[in-house]
């Protein structure tokens, strides 16, 4: 535990100083509430017609605060996956790609412990960003509405859980980053999974495909698709965290400096 605590402190400091963190944090925290409010406002403005209006139709009716928080969950379910996936590419692949791998062999702390600490730091950062984004979305929805109803609070809670699930689903890309030692290859794999997710949803398997579950659960595919996501689908999505932790720790235990 002492070694893990030391690794957590070191990895936290390194991540705080990371350029990726400094760019991704404000983008993730601010993008979600801004996009949610903007989508609802645009849908209700009447300024969009044709195909665009049809796509925005779900945001054009109902309680504005609830709709904004539903939209926040939908945006966060995608943004958290992408942001945490990019973070994993930077945190795991870049040190191996630029030749710093040899330094890990001189540490008293086992490499698997370092990898575990790095994963936990990324998850903690992503969870904090998701919470901050949802809090801002709640505030942006509550002020003009003079408070939130039960449905709005439920939508906000679902948005937070969806963001956490999406962040956890990015953790296996730390394993991809370690295996390829390439940030670019890791990002390519992330984009490939997003594309595959779209195809799985099109053929009707999204409720069982972990990478589709958070966005479908928030209603991105419509009410019917959201209701099809059950406890099993949510558990499959959540399983990405322990699986990712175990695989990355195993990889780093067997890591070589070549």
Automatic annotation (TrEMBL):
<keyword id="KW-0812">Transmembrane</keyword>
<feature type="transmembrane region" description="Helical">
    <location>
        <begin position="27"/>
        <end position="49"/>
    </location>
</feature>
<feature type="transmembrane region" description="Helical">
    <location>
        <begin position="184"/>
        <end position="209"/>
    </location>
</feature>
<feature type="transmembrane region" description="Helical">
    <location>
        <begin position="114"/>
        <end position="139"/>
    </location>
</feature>
<feature type="transmembrane region" description="Helical">
    <location>
        <begin position="69"/>
        <end position="93"/>
    </location>
</feature>
<keyword id="KW-1133">Transmembrane helix</keyword>
<protein>
    <submittedName>
        <fullName>ABC-2 type transport system permease protein</fullName>
    </submittedName>
</protein>
<feature type="transmembrane region" description="Helical">
    <location>
        <begin position="159"/>
        <end position="177"/>
    </location>
</feature>
<keyword id="KW-0472">Membrane</keyword>
<feature type="transmembrane region" description="Helical">
    <location>
        <begin position="229"/>
        <end position="250"/>
    </location>
</feature>
């Amino acid at each position: 535990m002492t070694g893990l605590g030391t690794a957590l402190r070191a990895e936290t400091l390194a991540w705080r100083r990371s350029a990726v963190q400094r760019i991704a944090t404000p983008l993730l925290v601010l993008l979600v509430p801004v996009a949610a409010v903007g989508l609802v406002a645009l849908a209700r403005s009447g300024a969009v017609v044709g195909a665009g209006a049809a796509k925005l139709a779900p945001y054009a009716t109902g309680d504005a605060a609830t709709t904004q928080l539903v939209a926040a969950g939908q945006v966060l379910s995608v943004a958290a996956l992408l942001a945490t996936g990019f973070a994993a590419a930077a945190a795991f692949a870049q040190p191996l790609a630029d030749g710093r791998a040899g330094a890990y062999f001189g540490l008293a702390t086992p490499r698997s412990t370092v990898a575990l600490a790095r994963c936990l730091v990324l998850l903690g950062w992503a969870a904090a960003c998701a919470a901050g984004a949802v809090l801002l979305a709640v505030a942006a929805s509550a002020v003009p509405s003079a408070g939130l109803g039960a449905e709005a609070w439920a939508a906000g809670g679902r948005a937070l859980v969806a963001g956490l699930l999406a962040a956890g689903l990015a953790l296996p890309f730390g394993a991809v980053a370690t295996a390829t030692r390439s940030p670019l290859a890791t990002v390519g794999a992330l984009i490939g999974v997003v594309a595959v997710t779209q195809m799985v949803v099109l053929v009707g398997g999204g409720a069982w495909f972990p990478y589709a579950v958070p966005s479908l659960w928030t209603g991105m595919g419509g009410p019917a698709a959201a209701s099809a996501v059950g406890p099993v689908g949510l558990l499959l999505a959540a399983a990405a965290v322990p699986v990712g932790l175990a695989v990355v720790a195993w990889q780093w235990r067997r890591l070589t400096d070549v």
